[in-house]
Amino acid sequence: MTIFNNIGERYDIFVDWDRRLSTEIPFLHKVLRSRNAKKILDVGCATGKHAIELAKLGYDMHGIDISDNLIQKAKRNAQEARTYIDFEAMSMLDITKHKAKLFDAVLMLGNVVSLLDDEKQVLSFFADAKSVLKIGGILVIQTLNYRKMIKNGERYELIETPEPNLIFLKIFDLVGENTRLSIVMLERNNSWEMSEMSQHLMIMTKEDLVRHASRTKFSSISLYGKFDGSPFKGEESDQILAVFEK
Questions:
Q1: Are 188 and 175 part of one and the same domain?
Q2: Where residue 153 sits, what CATH number does that domain have?
Q3: Among 44, 92, 137, 175, who pairs with 112 as Cys (CB 3.0-4.6 Å)?
């Protein structure tokens, strides 16, 4: 279970969805439309915001997340948005249970790939994702560019929420060759109270992603550094956006 399960109902306050969706959905729509994709699996879908926006654009969306708390919130969000999406509480390592359905695209957004424990699990996920894709289907992965963060010493991110009595602080610490994400939540009732959660994250580089895609024999790879479609530029890009075609 991830630390985001503990945030629960506050997850949609923790994430700046207006900012993210305004840049991420146009990119995803363009990539999916260029492949004539219709049936999409969102892995690590959290509260379902990406899936809901893509469903509004006409895609047949399915979403899984290991957190039952987040899946229940996703179902409520979909109901409020008047969209039907097949949301299910499931580990990303169990996606072969969907093998009979076959998808045009598998999405893994929001740094979810770094939640896998080790390279063996990452390789297994790549193989499983390929097995649930139709021929010509795509796997889209987005993760933070840790090399840029390490180079620039980007350890802290303060998140001020729309609620004046709730603040989050994200802290990244290097632990060996990986990192630990700590989330500090400050909440004021009569006085300020603090709680802290932490999660091990794998550092995934461009080379790591390309290597796993090559080992699982994806036929082509496209790399981007931002959701505006600009190319990936080593330690300059904030993110690694990779599109792998079966």
A1: yes
A2: 2.20.25
A3: 44
